Amino acid sequence: MPNWDTRLEVSVGGQTITPITAFTPTFSTPRTVIHSLEATNVGFVRGPFTFSFTITVPAIGSAVANLTDLALKGTSFDLTIAEKQGTDWTFNRLLFANCVITQAQPGSITVSDVPSATFTCIALTATIEKGS
Q1: CATH code for the domain in which residue 109 is found
Q2: Nearest CA to 55 among 113, 4, 127, 122?
Q3: Which of 19, 48, 64, 100 is 20 to 30 A off residue 113, Cα-Cα?
């Protein structure tokens, strides 16, 4: 039974970004059903895979400034999520390669909480290393 003490580490272009408040990956594997005059549902055509993700980062360090700079310049980067400690995470490592930021959304500044920024990104490739 896992004890859920794993800490994930997110790095962009080799630079660790911490802390991450939220990371949400999306993998899309579209399929279109093929019909014929003789029969229905005779097969399917696979469309291109798409990989996207959002990350939310508290605006307390240089990470938000660095990510905003990547967004404004349209610079591509690699994003890695890996186990820093523990072994109870489903994957040992996720690598999103050739990523670009498509949207940067700074959060509201309030008196009581740390402001954060959410970045929406797309990736050309995704590689997964499974846990044991």
Answers
A1: 2.30.110.20
A2: 122
A3: 100
Decide: helix, strand or coil at residue 105: strand
Q: Tell whether 102 is covered by a domain.
A: yes
Q: What is the pLDDT along the chain (132 residues), one digit of tens a residue?
A: 455 455 556 777 777 776 778 888 899 999 999 999 999 999 999 999 999 999 888 888 788 888 888 899 998 888 887 766 666 666 777 888 899 999 999 888 878 888 899 999 999 998 887 765
First to last CA, the chain: 14
* 118: in domain: yes
* pTM higher than the cut 0.70: yes
β pairing state of 22-28 and 31-34: unpaired
In the numeric block, the tokens 């890996």 are attached to 82
Q: How many Å apart are CA 67 and CA 63, to the nearest integer?
A: 6
- Residue 116, domain member (yes or no): yes
62 occurs within a structural domain:
yes
